[in-house]
Amino acid sequence: MTWTIYSTYLHLRFNKGWKGKTLVRFSIIDFICVIFTFIGVNILLPGIHSYR
After folding, report:
1. How remote is the C-alpha of 36 from its chain's centroid?
2. pLDDT tens digits, residue range 12-41?
3. Which terminus of the chain has a smaller tally of CB atoms within 10 A, N or C?
């Protein structure tokens, strides 16, 4: 999921020409998703997919 989000970010930046505040907002959403992926998977969904 994280790779998909950041590949979308790169696509929007280079191919669609997004700049400025719009790209910053998308980056903040990306960062929140990465934090959830790391913390949420370890704490909220323990099991075989845990990073520990």
Report:
1. 9
2. 888 887 788 888 898 898 899 888 888 877
3. C
At residue 16, what are phi and psi to the nearest 5 degrees?
-95, -10
> Does residue 20 fall inside a structural domain?
yes
48 to each of 40, 44, 51, how far by Cα in Å? Answer: 14, 13, 9
Domain of residue 11, residue span: 2-44
Question: Cβ distance 8 to 23 under 8 Å?
Answer: no
Q: CA–CA distance from 45 to each of 18, 20, 29 (Å)?
A: 35, 35, 21
Q: Which residue has the tokens 């370890």?
A: 42
Instruction: Domain count for the chain, please give it.
Output: 1
Which residue bears the tokens 């790169």? 10
